[in-house]
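User: Teach me something about this protein's shape.
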Amino acid sequence: MSDIILGIESSCDDTSAAVLRDEYLLSSVIASQKVHQVWGGVVPELASRAHLMNIVPVVDQALKEANVTMEEVDAIAFTRGPGLLGSLLVGTSFAKGLAISSGKKLVDVNHLQGHILSCLVKQEGKDTPSPTFPFLTLLVSGGHTQIVRVDGHFEFEILGQTIDDAVGEAFDKCSKMMGLGYPGGPVVDKLAKEGDPLKFKFNLPNVGGLDYSFSGIKTSLLYFLRDRLKENPNFIEENKADICASFQKALIDILMKKLILAVKQTGIKQVSIGGGVSANSGLRERVAEEGKKRGWQTFIPEFKFTTDNAAMIAISGLYKYRRGEFCSLERPSVPRASAMNQSQK
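Assistant: First, the predicted structure itself:
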Protein backbone atom coordinates (compact mmCIF):
# COMPACT_ATOMS: atom_id res chain seq x y z
CA MET A 1 0.00 0.00 0.00
CA SER A 2 1.31 3.44 -0.95
CA ASP A 3 2.24 6.18 1.49
CA ILE A 4 1.14 9.70 0.56
CA ILE A 5 3.03 12.59 2.15
CA LEU A 6 2.21 16.30 2.02
CA GLY A 7 5.37 18.37 2.46
CA ILE A 8 5.46 22.02 3.55
CA GLU A 9 8.59 24.22 3.33
CA SER A 10 8.84 27.78 4.73
CA SER A 11 12.36 28.14 6.11
CA CYS A 12 13.31 31.36 4.29
CA ASP A 13 11.55 33.31 1.54
CA ASP A 14 9.92 30.57 -0.56
CA THR A 15 6.57 29.08 0.39
CA SER A 16 6.36 25.58 -1.02
CA ALA A 17 4.14 22.51 -0.83
CA ALA A 18 4.58 19.13 -2.52
CA VAL A 19 2.87 15.77 -2.54
CA LEU A 20 4.66 12.41 -2.83
CA ARG A 21 3.24 8.94 -3.34
CA ASP A 22 6.03 6.80 -1.93
CA GLU A 23 9.19 8.29 -3.49
CA TYR A 24 7.35 9.63 -6.56
CA LEU A 25 6.58 13.31 -6.91
CA LEU A 26 2.95 14.08 -7.69
CA SER A 27 3.11 17.87 -7.41
CA SER A 28 5.38 20.71 -6.36
CA VAL A 29 4.25 24.32 -5.98
CA ILE A 30 6.53 27.21 -4.99
CA ALA A 31 5.61 30.85 -4.34
CA SER A 32 8.72 33.03 -4.43
CA GLN A 33 8.97 36.48 -2.84
CA LYS A 34 10.31 39.26 -5.09
CA VAL A 35 10.05 42.03 -2.47
CA HIS A 36 13.50 41.24 -1.01
CA GLN A 37 15.30 42.27 -4.19
CA VAL A 38 14.65 45.93 -3.33
CA TRP A 39 16.50 45.53 -0.02
CA GLY A 40 19.40 43.46 -1.31
CA GLY A 41 18.63 40.53 0.98
CA VAL A 42 15.86 38.69 2.77
CA VAL A 43 13.97 40.83 5.29
CA PRO A 44 12.68 38.37 7.94
CA GLU A 45 9.52 40.31 8.84
CA LEU A 46 8.51 40.70 5.19
CA ALA A 47 9.24 37.04 4.56
CA SER A 48 6.98 35.82 7.37
CA ARG A 49 4.15 38.10 6.24
CA ALA A 50 4.40 36.77 2.69
CA HIS A 51 4.31 33.19 3.98
CA LEU A 52 1.05 34.00 5.78
CA MET A 53 -0.48 35.12 2.49
CA ASN A 54 0.92 32.29 0.38
CA ILE A 55 0.71 29.14 2.45
CA VAL A 56 -3.01 28.36 2.11
CA PRO A 57 -3.21 28.77 -1.70
CA VAL A 58 0.13 26.97 -2.20
CA VAL A 59 -0.92 23.90 -0.19
CA ASP A 60 -4.33 23.88 -1.84
CA GLN A 61 -2.77 24.04 -5.31
CA ALA A 62 -0.32 21.23 -4.52
CA LEU A 63 -3.15 18.93 -3.46
CA LYS A 64 -5.18 19.81 -6.56
CA GLU A 65 -2.27 19.23 -8.95
CA ALA A 66 -1.56 15.89 -7.28
CA ASN A 67 -5.26 14.97 -7.52
CA VAL A 68 -5.12 14.04 -3.84
CA THR A 69 -7.48 14.94 -1.00
CA MET A 70 -6.50 15.46 2.62
CA GLU A 71 -8.38 12.27 3.43
CA GLU A 72 -5.90 10.35 1.29
CA VAL A 73 -2.81 11.95 2.86
CA ASP A 74 -1.04 9.74 5.41
CA ALA A 75 1.20 12.36 7.01
CA ILE A 76 2.11 16.05 6.92
CA ALA A 77 5.83 16.81 6.84
CA PHE A 78 7.09 20.32 7.57
CA THR A 79 10.39 22.15 7.95
CA ARG A 80 11.12 22.66 11.63
CA GLY A 81 14.60 24.14 11.16
CA PRO A 82 17.06 25.56 10.50
CA GLY A 83 15.85 28.83 9.02
CA LEU A 84 14.35 32.21 9.84
CA LEU A 85 12.28 31.93 13.01
CA GLY A 86 9.30 33.93 11.74
CA SER A 87 9.16 31.97 8.48
CA LEU A 88 9.48 28.65 10.28
CA LEU A 89 6.69 29.59 12.70
CA VAL A 90 4.26 30.14 9.83
CA GLY A 91 4.88 26.72 8.31
CA THR A 92 5.04 24.97 11.68
CA SER A 93 1.80 26.53 12.92
CA PHE A 94 -0.02 25.79 9.69
CA ALA A 95 1.17 22.17 9.60
CA LYS A 96 0.14 21.62 13.21
CA GLY A 97 -3.27 23.18 12.63
CA LEU A 98 -3.81 21.08 9.52
CA ALA A 99 -2.77 17.93 11.39
CA ILE A 100 -5.24 18.68 14.18
CA SER A 101 -8.12 19.41 11.81
CA SER A 102 -7.44 16.43 9.53
CA GLY A 103 -6.32 13.91 12.15
CA LYS A 104 -3.14 13.15 10.17
CA LYS A 105 0.29 12.23 11.49
CA LEU A 106 2.77 15.09 11.81
CA VAL A 107 6.45 14.72 10.88
CA ASP A 108 9.14 17.35 11.52
CA VAL A 109 12.01 17.60 9.03
CA ASN A 110 15.50 19.05 9.24
CA HIS A 111 15.89 21.41 6.28
CA LEU A 112 19.51 20.40 5.64
CA GLN A 113 18.66 16.70 5.68
CA GLY A 114 15.97 17.50 3.13
CA HIS A 115 18.58 18.97 0.78
CA ILE A 116 20.75 15.88 1.24
CA LEU A 117 17.91 13.42 0.58
CA SER A 118 16.40 15.37 -2.34
CA CYS A 119 18.41 13.19 -4.73
CA LEU A 120 16.12 10.28 -3.76
CA VAL A 121 12.95 11.92 -5.15
CA LYS A 122 11.65 10.09 -8.22
CA GLN A 123 9.49 11.35 -11.08
CA GLU A 124 7.16 9.39 -13.30
CA GLY A 125 8.51 8.99 -16.82
CA LYS A 126 12.05 9.93 -15.83
CA ASP A 127 14.67 7.27 -15.27
CA THR A 128 16.81 9.40 -12.99
CA PRO A 129 19.31 7.29 -10.99
CA SER A 130 19.55 7.70 -7.23
CA PRO A 131 22.62 6.98 -5.10
CA THR A 132 22.85 4.00 -2.80
CA PHE A 133 24.34 4.17 0.67
CA PRO A 134 26.98 5.24 1.43
CA PHE A 135 27.39 8.39 -0.64
CA LEU A 136 28.92 11.84 -0.20
CA THR A 137 27.00 15.08 -0.50
CA LEU A 138 28.46 18.52 -1.09
CA LEU A 139 25.86 20.69 0.65
CA VAL A 140 26.22 24.29 -0.52
CA SER A 141 23.91 27.22 0.18
CA GLY A 142 23.79 30.76 1.48
CA GLY A 143 24.04 29.55 5.05
CA HIS A 144 25.91 26.24 4.87
CA THR A 145 28.89 24.64 3.17
CA GLN A 146 29.48 21.04 4.21
CA ILE A 147 30.75 17.71 2.96
CA VAL A 148 28.48 15.05 4.44
CA ARG A 149 28.88 11.29 4.45
CA VAL A 150 25.47 9.63 4.16
CA ASP A 151 25.29 6.04 5.42
CA GLY A 152 21.51 5.81 5.71
CA HIS A 153 18.36 7.90 5.47
CA PHE A 154 19.20 9.49 8.81
CA GLU A 155 22.82 8.48 9.31
CA PHE A 156 24.94 11.54 8.58
CA GLU A 157 28.52 12.44 9.34
CA ILE A 158 29.82 15.92 8.60
CA LEU A 159 33.34 15.38 7.27
CA GLY A 160 34.10 19.03 6.67
CA GLN A 161 32.38 22.41 6.84
CA THR A 162 33.07 26.12 6.61
CA ILE A 163 34.78 27.63 9.63
CA ASP A 164 33.36 31.07 8.83
CA ASP A 165 31.17 32.07 5.89
CA ALA A 166 29.19 29.92 3.46
CA VAL A 167 29.96 29.82 -0.25
CA GLY A 168 26.50 31.19 -1.10
CA GLU A 169 27.28 34.27 0.98
CA ALA A 170 30.50 34.72 -0.98
CA PHE A 171 28.52 34.79 -4.23
CA ASP A 172 26.06 37.32 -2.77
CA LYS A 173 28.85 39.55 -1.44
CA CYS A 174 30.56 39.50 -4.84
CA SER A 175 27.36 40.69 -6.45
CA LYS A 176 26.84 43.35 -3.80
CA MET A 177 30.40 44.70 -4.10
CA MET A 178 29.93 45.01 -7.85
CA GLY A 179 26.44 46.48 -7.65
CA LEU A 180 24.86 43.61 -9.55
CA GLY A 181 21.78 43.08 -7.37
CA TYR A 182 20.21 40.31 -5.29
CA PRO A 183 20.17 37.33 -5.24
CA GLY A 184 23.80 37.40 -6.23
CA GLY A 185 24.44 33.77 -7.15
CA PRO A 186 22.35 33.63 -10.35
CA VAL A 187 23.62 37.05 -11.50
CA VAL A 188 27.27 36.11 -11.02
CA ASP A 189 26.71 32.75 -12.70
CA LYS A 190 25.06 34.37 -15.73
CA LEU A 191 27.84 36.91 -16.20
CA ALA A 192 30.53 34.27 -15.61
CA LYS A 193 29.39 32.41 -18.73
CA GLU A 194 30.44 35.42 -20.78
CA GLY A 195 33.81 36.02 -19.10
CA ASP A 196 37.34 34.62 -18.93
CA PRO A 197 37.82 32.59 -15.73
CA LEU A 198 41.60 32.91 -16.02
CA LYS A 199 41.68 36.70 -16.36
CA PHE A 200 42.10 37.54 -12.65
CA LYS A 201 43.54 35.67 -9.66
CA PHE A 202 42.34 35.73 -6.06
CA ASN A 203 44.00 34.51 -2.88
CA LEU A 204 42.75 31.04 -1.97
CA PRO A 205 42.47 29.88 1.66
CA ASN A 206 44.80 27.36 3.24
CA VAL A 207 42.65 25.45 5.73
CA GLY A 208 43.58 22.00 6.97
CA GLY A 209 41.54 18.84 6.62
CA LEU A 210 38.20 18.96 4.84
CA ASP A 211 37.05 22.28 6.28
CA TYR A 212 36.35 25.39 4.23
CA SER A 213 36.85 29.13 4.64
CA PHE A 214 35.40 31.88 2.45
CA SER A 215 35.95 35.04 4.49
CA GLY A 216 39.47 35.56 3.12
CA ILE A 217 38.55 35.32 -0.54
CA LYS A 218 35.78 37.87 -0.02
CA THR A 219 38.36 40.23 1.46
CA SER A 220 40.66 39.49 -1.48
CA LEU A 221 37.92 40.53 -3.88
CA LEU A 222 37.16 43.66 -1.86
CA TYR A 223 40.78 44.87 -1.95
CA PHE A 224 41.14 43.86 -5.60
CA LEU A 225 38.14 45.99 -6.61
CA ARG A 226 39.23 48.88 -4.39
CA ASP A 227 42.68 49.04 -5.94
CA ARG A 228 41.48 48.65 -9.52
CA LEU A 229 38.77 51.30 -9.09
CA LYS A 230 41.42 53.78 -7.94
CA GLU A 231 43.20 53.25 -11.25
CA ASN A 232 40.04 53.13 -13.35
CA PRO A 233 36.61 54.22 -11.99
CA ASN A 234 34.93 52.21 -14.76
CA PHE A 235 36.87 49.03 -14.02
CA ILE A 236 33.89 46.98 -12.79
CA GLU A 237 31.63 47.94 -15.66
CA GLU A 238 34.34 47.24 -18.24
CA ASN A 239 35.36 43.90 -16.72
CA LYS A 240 32.34 42.56 -14.83
CA ALA A 241 32.01 39.34 -16.84
CA ASP A 242 35.70 38.49 -16.37
CA ILE A 243 35.57 39.38 -12.66
CA CYS A 244 32.54 37.13 -12.13
CA ALA A 245 34.07 34.28 -14.12
CA SER A 246 37.38 34.50 -12.25
CA PHE A 247 35.79 34.79 -8.82
CA GLN A 248 33.34 31.97 -9.52
CA LYS A 249 36.20 29.72 -10.69
CA ALA A 250 38.09 30.47 -7.47
CA LEU A 251 35.08 29.51 -5.33
CA ILE A 252 34.54 26.29 -7.28
CA ASP A 253 38.24 25.45 -7.03
CA ILE A 254 37.97 25.75 -3.25
CA LEU A 255 34.89 23.51 -3.14
CA MET A 256 36.29 20.86 -5.45
CA LYS A 257 39.71 20.60 -3.80
CA LYS A 258 38.13 19.39 -0.55
CA LEU A 259 35.51 17.24 -2.26
CA ILE A 260 38.22 15.41 -4.22
CA LEU A 261 40.14 14.90 -0.98
CA ALA A 262 37.02 13.56 0.76
CA VAL A 263 36.51 10.96 -1.97
CA LYS A 264 40.14 9.89 -1.68
CA GLN A 265 39.97 9.60 2.11
CA THR A 266 36.67 7.69 2.26
CA GLY A 267 36.91 5.65 -0.94
CA ILE A 268 33.25 6.55 -1.62
CA LYS A 269 32.78 7.35 -5.29
CA GLN A 270 29.08 8.18 -5.27
CA VAL A 271 28.84 11.96 -5.05
CA SER A 272 25.82 14.23 -4.97
CA ILE A 273 25.39 17.98 -4.58
CA GLY A 274 22.55 19.83 -2.92
CA GLY A 275 21.45 23.25 -1.70
CA GLY A 276 20.87 26.50 -3.53
CA VAL A 277 24.41 26.85 -4.85
CA SER A 278 24.08 23.45 -6.56
CA ALA A 279 22.11 25.40 -9.19
CA ASN A 280 25.34 27.11 -10.24
CA SER A 281 26.15 26.01 -13.78
CA GLY A 282 29.92 26.20 -13.25
CA LEU A 283 29.78 23.95 -10.20
CA ARG A 284 27.46 21.48 -11.92
CA GLU A 285 29.78 21.23 -14.92
CA ARG A 286 32.87 20.88 -12.75
CA VAL A 287 31.37 18.10 -10.62
CA ALA A 288 30.32 16.23 -13.76
CA GLU A 289 33.77 16.68 -15.32
CA GLU A 290 35.63 15.53 -12.21
CA GLY A 291 33.27 12.57 -11.97
CA LYS A 292 34.10 11.41 -15.48
CA LYS A 293 37.81 11.96 -14.97
CA ARG A 294 38.00 10.23 -11.58
CA GLY A 295 35.44 7.45 -12.02
CA TRP A 296 32.81 8.90 -9.71
CA GLN A 297 29.10 8.29 -10.08
CA THR A 298 27.66 11.79 -9.76
CA PHE A 299 24.11 12.84 -8.91
CA ILE A 300 23.32 16.39 -9.93
CA PRO A 301 19.78 17.54 -9.07
CA GLU A 302 17.36 19.18 -11.44
CA PHE A 303 17.21 22.92 -10.93
CA LYS A 304 13.79 22.69 -9.26
CA PHE A 305 15.31 20.54 -6.50
CA THR A 306 18.27 22.84 -5.82
CA THR A 307 16.50 25.78 -4.21
CA ASP A 308 14.26 25.43 -1.15
CA ASN A 309 11.38 23.16 -2.10
CA ALA A 310 8.82 20.98 -0.36
CA ALA A 311 9.62 17.84 -2.36
CA MET A 312 12.80 17.42 -0.30
CA ILE A 313 10.78 17.91 2.88
CA ALA A 314 8.25 15.32 1.76
CA ILE A 315 10.91 12.70 0.92
CA SER A 316 12.53 13.13 4.33
CA GLY A 317 9.11 13.02 5.94
CA LEU A 318 8.31 9.81 4.09
CA TYR A 319 11.26 7.97 5.61
CA LYS A 320 10.56 9.32 9.10
CA TYR A 321 6.90 8.32 8.73
CA ARG A 322 7.93 4.78 7.82
CA ARG A 323 10.16 4.69 10.90
CA GLY A 324 7.25 5.81 13.07
CA GLU A 325 9.00 9.04 14.08
CA PHE A 326 6.26 11.60 14.58
CA CYS A 327 6.26 15.15 15.93
CA SER A 328 4.30 16.26 18.97
CA LEU A 329 2.30 19.49 18.84
CA GLU A 330 4.44 20.91 21.65
CA ARG A 331 7.71 20.69 19.73
CA PRO A 332 8.88 24.21 18.71
CA SER A 333 10.67 25.46 15.62
CA VAL A 334 14.49 25.29 15.64
CA PRO A 335 16.08 28.27 13.83
CA ARG A 336 19.57 26.81 14.31
CA ALA A 337 20.04 23.12 13.69
CA SER A 338 22.79 20.94 12.29
CA ALA A 339 22.35 18.28 9.61
CA MET A 340 23.64 15.91 12.28
CA ASN A 341 20.77 16.75 14.61
CA GLN A 342 18.17 14.19 13.65
CA SER A 343 15.69 14.58 16.46
CA GLN A 344 15.94 18.39 16.78
CA LYS A 345 14.75 18.19 20.39
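Now, about its shape. The chain has two domains: 4-127+308-322, 135-301. Residues 47 and 325 are 30 Å apart (CA to CA). If you'd like, I can walk through any region in more detail.
User: That's plenty for now, thanks!
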